[in-house]
Design brief:
Helices cover about 30% and strands about 0% of the residues. With about 80 residues, it is mainly α.
Length: about 80
């Protein structure tokens, strides 16, 4: 508890803060693993399914679904000046 107080301060500093609730992430119906021998094979698959894939890609939704969620995709920064 002392370590937590060092990081975040005493509890009274957090009074009247808004509650944070994170909604449960949607579980997929099914998951498969696809392996590629070459980057060319990955690029060919990427083109065929119409989704951007890189050697660093770990997962995708099909059909495409942003991992940021629809709400985030609709947000825009606006300068008030």
């Amino acid at each position: 508890m002392e370590e937590q107080e060092e990081l975040f301060g005493k509890e009274e500093h957090w009074d009247n803060m808004p509650e944070f609730l994170q909604e449960k992430q949607e579980d997929p119906f099914s998951t498969i693993t696809v392996r590629f021998e070459t980057e060319e094979d990955l690029n060919d698959f990427s083109q065929k399914i119409g989704q951007k894939l890189t050697p660093l890609s770990k997962s995708i939704w099909h059909p495409y679904k942003s991992h940021w969620g629809d709400e985030v995709n609709n947000l825009r920064w606006q300068d008030e000046s």
